Amino acid sequence: MESSEEQHWSAIEALQDVESDETWEHVFALRKAGTRTVLEKAIRWCQDNDPLHRSIGVSVLAQLGVDGSSYPEEANAMIRSMIPIENDHEVMTSLISAVNFRAMEEGICWLISLSQHPSEDIRWRVAWGLPSPDSCDPNLGRQIIDTLMRLLVDPEPRVRDWATFSLSMTEEDSPQLREALLERMQDTDFNTRSEAAIGLAKRKEPLGVNLLVECLKSDLVGELYVEAAETYADPRLKPALLSLRKWWAVNPELLERAIAACS
User: Fold this and answer.
1) What average pLDDT does the structure give for the chain?
2) Rounded to whole angstroms, how far apart are CA atoms 144 and 128?
3) Hey, is 69 helix, strand or coil?
4) Burial of 214 (0-12, 13-18, 19+ CB in 10 A)
């Protein structure tokens, strides 16, 4: 009779679908079990010729154990060995997640190298997977900032969105970054504009205020626009905020805080 762990592996094998919710229920169960036998089988799958096996093996190792970081030496060594040689799309996406979840500094340069990958999905995952430059040594932090700055103008909206979010949340402040965020405030993508508004408000960039007024007067107003207004605390934003009282019911408490801040 199969153990519960083996049942999970067998179910994944039978499903043959790395993206299905059912597959991921089994992956989560194996991660939670976090035993040495799970570790050893995940490593064997990482070394298999079948890309599905490799992708699942990496995904299990990415967050193994209750705290998500069990067996750091063995798991990290396996992931590290795959990074230079893997070229299957699904496996690469699993590796990006693993580098992020396990905070593998040695994988950051690999992530940076993928920022110009032809796949928009890979570039999006890079924008998501890069650590905050504030948490790295200055040289590596600068490389991350430069990479995110390139991704700010990526043709794919969700790449721009995540890169804008990542840069907005950093302590980085420069004329070049402010100019880039001002450009993103006029992006065709709503989510990207919203993240740029937060980044500019955090830096109290004066040129962002009038752009934010126009956003608050538009037909599509998200919480981030109102949150940015609260952060700016600029009286020029108050009329547009007061007008929102007529129809904006997304977060009335946030709206009232923003109005008070701008009064």
Assistant:
1) 95
2) 12
3) strand
4) exposed
